[in-house]
Structures are given as C-alpha cells and as structure tokens.
Amino acid sequence: MKRYHNRFLENIKNQLVRWDEVSHISHQDVYRFLHSIQGTSGILGLQDISNKAAVLVHSLQEESERVWTSDEVKKYCLELLHLCYTFEVDSAIEDQPNGEIQTRINKNAPVILVVDDDTSFLMVAKKALEDEGWQVVPKTDIKRAVQSFYEIQPDCILVDVYMKNETGFELLNFFEEQSKNSFIPTMMISMDHSKSTRVMAYEKGADDFLTKDMEMDELIIRIKRQLTRKKKVDQLLLVDELTKVYNRKFLTQMYPTLLANHTLHEGRACLAVVDLDHFKNVNDSFGHIVGDKVLQTFAQFLSRHLRKEDFICRYGGEEFVLLFSNISISEAERVMNTLRDQFSMLLFDGEAEQFSCTFSAGLVEIKDVSVDIDQWVDLADDALYEAKESGRNRVKVHQGSSTIGSQRTDLRIAVVDDDPIARVVVKNTITSLIEEMNVRCSVETFGDGQDFVDSSFHQDPAPCIVILDGVMPGLDGLEVLKHIRSLQSSDQYKVIMLTSRQTPDDIAKALHLGADDYMIKPFYNQELIDRVEKWILRSSYRKA
C-alpha cells in the first residue's frame, strides 16, 4: 500500500510542477484534479485527504469559464496540501528505526556553541542537547566558531581539544580574552583526558573538562550547572562589560524613572537610537579587537558629552539608545548633530593605517508616558533607517506621519526546494510565523538551486535566512551553499540545510562549506518553524 501512497503524492507534485510552467489553467482542469484526488485518496484509505478534497470539489462549479493561475490553485488547495505534507512526514517518520522526531526548541532557550571537527560526536551531541530544548550552533573549525561567537552571543561553549591542523586551546585563548567583557562558561572535551591535557585546559581558562566517552546524561547535567552559574551572574549585571555603559536590561528597569522626570519637566523627553555606520567593514578590515576598541571609544565619547540627567545604554551590537530628559526635540537634534560632527573627527589605529568612523541617529519625542519603551525605540529606529537610506552620517527626527516602517523589509527568507508541496506549505507557515512575530520580512520560494542562484534575490542587502534542500536535480544544495559563501555579502546569509543524508561525512561537508544549521529529514513542519524563529530572533530586524 505504501508504494501506492507514494505514487499518489508524486502525481500531485508532478501536476503542480506542470502548472508552475504555464500562465493559465482551465477551471475544468482544476475541477478534475481535485475530483481525482478525492476518489483516489478514498480508495487508498487516506480519508482526511479525501474529505478535504470533497469539500473543495463541492465549493466549485463543474462548469465555469474561470481561468486560474498556479498561485491561485495552491492558495485554494492550501489546507489539502498541508494534509498531504503531514501524511508524507508521518509515513517517513514511521519508517525511522525508533520513530523519533526532534524536540521543540524554546525561542528563549540557552544557546550552546559546539566546536568539533568530529562530526559523529557533533551529531550525537547536537541531538542530545536539542532534546533538552536548547539551541545548538554546530561548527567544525575555529574561524567560523569565532565569527559565530560575535553573531550569536552563546550562553555556553563546548570545544574539542584536538582538531585537524588546530587545537581547541587556540580557541580557548580567544574565549578567555572575551570573558573579560562577559561571563560565558567554556567547557573542553576530548578523548585524551590525561592529567597534562586537563591541567592545560584549566590553566587556559576552561570552566570544565569532559571526556568524549562520557554518557550524554552526565554531559547535559554538567552543562546545566554552567548555565545556572551564568544565569546568576547575568542577573547581577546591569552594565555592558565591553563598553561600561548600561545594558538593555537596565533600560527597561529605569524607564519608570524617566517617566517620573518626564512628568516633573512638563513632558519634555526624547529618545535616540544611534548606530555606527558601516561598522561591519571595520571588523572585516581591521579585526574584532579593533572593532571592540571603536565601540568602547564611542561609548566613552557619548558618556563624556551627555548631561548627568541623560542615560546611555548599549542596545545591541553597534547600536546604542540615548534617553534625554527635560529637552525639546529640536534641542536634542542639535545636540546629536554636534556629537556627530565631533565624533567623525576622531582617528582610530588600524594595523597599517588610521581610520575614522561616523554614526547615524534617529530621534523621537516621547509624548505619551503610557506607551511602552519598545514602541518609542521602534519609532526612533524608523528615523534611523531613514537616516541610513539618506546616505548615513546624519540625524533624522521621526515624524508622526512617517510610513517608513511599513515600507522597509528588515529580513528576507528564501525557501529553496524542488518539492512543490513542501514549498507551498513551508512558505505559508513561515508567513504566518512572521505575522505572529510582527516582523518586517519577505518570503520567496525557488523550485531549484539554479533559479535561486540566477535570481535578483541577492541584490537586496537585507539579512537573509535560506532554507536549503540538500538534494535537488541540477544544482544541488551543496553547490548552492558554495555559491552563497562565495558572495561578497555572504555574511548576510544564514543557511539551514535540510538533508536526508544522515552520514557524518555529508553533514561535515555542509558545515565545512558554511551551513549555519542543519536538520535531518523527515521532520514535522512545526520543527522547522521553531528553528526559523530562532534564527529570526538572532537576526537584525525590527517589528512591523
């Protein structure tokens, strides 16, 4: 019977592919398509699919002059395609040795960075940690691990001692230096658990040392212990350790104080979102150590030039929020422009040259004390977006009638898969997700790798999440991944590789080529949505 089920689903997919290649579809063809699905699925015992097809057939007139497009057919049949997709996944999971599926990931769960070129261990550890509901970022080399450290800000790091051509001790030195700015527990793991190796790990700053033959339940307990330590330390900190100004948590806590001042000073208060221009180029050209120095200097510069009644906090990355009390919007704009001119004259030392930096700022006047702080930040950020679109190195004031927020897209998602049912279902589910998250995001689908590579999709500079099927006809997923990592804007792309190849070598190849995450088929659609939501939250985006 399973053979007939597979053929039935394949026929549906083939018909959808054929309709993608034509501009118009007759009403009679759509009617016959649904009528055939209703009858065949009933014979095959797929009653839910048959019942849904019957409802769709009943809603159509058998005779009509209507002409359909492929997208209209898919939209009309969306619930039916969802049922087909779920049935296919259910069947595939039943064929698995243990019938296991992945545990849902809490979007607020800790992020664990695992660095190991032993892909067999990496796969086992990733599965075990994700079963705890934790977010896991797997990396197989030091260079990508360092880059991920800055991007994801992990809560705990697990590093193999010995890797090809490099050792985890090199990475441990880097993490130990970074720990001066924030507490991130680092755990070393190795098959070599000799006294000399363990002592060296602790001397270089490791918080724990684990052996690879350790049972996974013990590994999880010891990671939990480190996460508990970090949580306690974080609760005590309201100051950003790198820049020595307040952090985002403090901004939320002190907002009631601002409201009190707002009332005392006749409602005159303003908020600015400030962002260093082209800061990524600084990191790429001079390294993250120089980039950190620029951030420190910028924060100190702002602190020295603000009044004692004003507040500054590091909001994230190179973005800062300033709160001004007892000041009009015109006065705040004048102050910000003065700061902008003065900061642009500062010189920083690169390896072989000096360079300068500028910043852009968006301003908003706080007029209603009952409005949540996040909404004022969003409005100021809209003005900041306008400043950047106007050429950067300038200050813009949010106007009440501004529609910038509804025009901009902060994030793009591409679904690259040759399975037409999967494309329709995944796009629809992700669209619902971004509506629920209130994210400015566009979603596009591509039927094969070549279509994606040749598209104008890459001309948009906004951050992008690519959901990439590993096996496709023509240009397969690994070739597409190579192309993405060859782009000048490669850092803008986060790639989730979907693979039915369960061998360590195949997954190692995807990670080596630059995949940021992977999922092994089959999986339920909701599991993919959990993963996408995680990467959306890590991306630079604003609410719609």
TrEMBL record:
Residue numbers bearing the 4-aspartylphosphate modification: 160, 469
Residue span(s) of domain Response regulatory: 111-227, 412-536
UniProt KW keywords: Phosphoprotein
Cellular component GO terms held in the UniProt record: plasma membrane
GGDEF domain: residues covered: 267-400
Molecular function terms from GO: diguanylate cyclase activity
UniProt xrefs under PROSITE patterns: GGDEF (PS50887), RESPONSE_REGULATORY (PS50110)
Name under which the protein is recorded: Diguanylate cyclase
